[in-house]
Design a protein that fits this description.
Two copies of one chain form a homodimer. Chain A is α+β, with helices and mostly antiparallel strands and 368 residues long. Chain A contains eight helices and 22 strands.
Amino acid sequence: MYSIGIGPNLRKSAYFDATVRDGVRSFSVYNHMLIPGHFGDPDAEYDRLLNGVVMWDVAAQRQVELRGPDAGRLVQYLTPRNLSKTRVGQGRYVPLCDYDGWVINDPVLLKLADDLYWLSVADSDIHLWAAAIGQEKGWDVAVSEPDVSPLAIQGPKSEDVAAKLFGEHIRNFKYFGFAETDLNGIPLVLARSGWSKQGGFELYLRDSARGAELWDLVKDAGQDFDIGPGAPNDTERLESGLISYGADMRLQIHRANPFEMGLGKLVDLDGGFDFVGKNALARIAQDGPARRHTGVIIAGDPTPPGHQVPIMSGNEEIGFVSEFAFSKRLGKNIGVGLIPSEFDPAASFDVQVDGARYSAAQTSVPFL
Amino acid sequence: MYSIGIGPNLRKSAYFDATVRDGVRSFSVYNHMLIPGHFGDPDAEYDRLLNGVVMWDVAAQRQVELRGPDAGRLVQYLTPRNLSKTRVGQGRYVPLCDYDGWVINDPVLLKLADDLYWLSVADSDIHLWAAAIGQEKGWDVAVSEPDVSPLAIQGPKSEDVAAKLFGEHIRNFKYFGFAETDLNGIPLVLARSGWSKQGGFELYLRDSARGAELWDLVKDAGQDFDIGPGAPNDTERLESGLISYGADMRLQIHRANPFEMGLGKLVDLDGGFDFVGKNALARIAQDGPARRHTGVIIAGDPTPPGHQVPIMSGNEEIGFVSEFAFSKRLGKNIGVGLIPSEFDPAASFDVQVDGARYSAAQTSVPFL
């Protein structure tokens, strides 16, 4: 166990003080910001996520704001997904690719107005990417990072907590729907979203000075539902088939394209619009992707080593498992990875962890 | 004290296993990669840096490679510093700005060939920035992150260690000079550089599979000089007036321009070349920068809180100290920050730390 150096080079979340007070025990770093890892009882946090309600400081999920007459033009150029039917108040999962078609982030897009969008980004500096492209195109759009700090409430009882805070009408929110609102005068955007498949909401706080206040309002409203603090959960995300940019794919490590990651249906090559990586993705679509995303079930009891592990077929390294974990619900070690497209879907292989080999079978995702 | 979550979303350095074996106790995160913070005895690491020799895993200082006929054109467009006289084998400190003139990184540039450059970057994704600009310009240059992992040896005895490893000729290396070489067949670039003012070298390992091997070669060669592991040292960098991108300035927090940071002499507005932010920087040069970088000496015994603190003049918040630390050599608390340009250089002010006020005086940097 190693400590984390908490210094001025890492940003602190708007909820940092509140999470420290409430017992955070571990941090990671995401978008140059500290993000809680757990609060000392990972099992309880997992159980709350599945059966109750948990609250997460996900302020490190930073927003990249595109504002101006050409904001819509820029955002469509940044993603292969067709946004022509996206309405104000709708969120969209939008993979972003570079000019070679490799995924460089997979944000949720929030369309706040025809000339105002937020990209709620995973862990890479899309702020720089979007600003460079907008400026070099000569488009009339300002790119910035606004003062926005998401707080997630996730789990089957999260709707009850949100209803208690905001009123019964929020039960009608569609998935990824959002609205601008406030809570005791705290400005925020409320969205039905979050990085789990257990249902929930994200409160996009718009005034970082009021982080502790919002944290406590949510905590108080959740008392009747036994709410507790937690963090995005690796086991649940594997069970649910959620992709993690940075773990499952990172430009500098994996060079994965959307077709390989199972996101091909979001790539619109025939939509009549141009986007970054279009030529490369058209070629890949024609030739077929080299690899495919797969679930794996691993026999035995390997310990997750904190990094990806090789997939071996005989003596050949044919791919990797980016992350695995023991699923209590399934009673199995489950993981995800990339293997060659032509590899027999019925064949098994080995996963190599700390020098030992463990037999593994392919399966589709999600697991649950 | 909080632990750090070591998972697949954070990259591990080529020296990770070696640093764990040699007792690393704390990590930070830089460019999405774990970087050692200390090895359990910060005082000994500071003393070795000042009086002996210390070895640092700085692989998180990633390289952004620009390769192709237009590589030189792109790198000159990325920085306000005039590179027309930079020769192959010369390093250069090159601030990078965005289109508004705000600093977005301050790498060391290595010119390996007329069509091949590395930017050894601080903590932001210049890979994305440079790739977007090169592509949108339509220039013939490939931007990538090569397999390069710097290891630094720093301190007055580092030259002896380098000479033992590479031969006596390295004593003739000029500051920021570098050469491609190898060590027992391990390919690397050797540079006289490093993030301290105690002298030293950086070994840019070009094969991450051989990280532990290189680490041990350096460790063995350094035994006669009592080498020990360490990490970039906040106290020494403050004493020496080195800027830390991320702490002293970060686009999303500080919006600082090169003139404010004391880097104005590196901005060439009359060099006859275009660069990102030129118009904005010309305006700032004409109007004068709003703030200036200053050293501060703080009375009393405040504890560094791990984040920047406000500078108060009476009841007005006029600026901030980005970082401060107790300098054993000076017997004082020293720090750096930004204050309004027009503020009387002879006037004192208060620094507010955890609700208490401490009187502080301005001073020039470096302190030593």
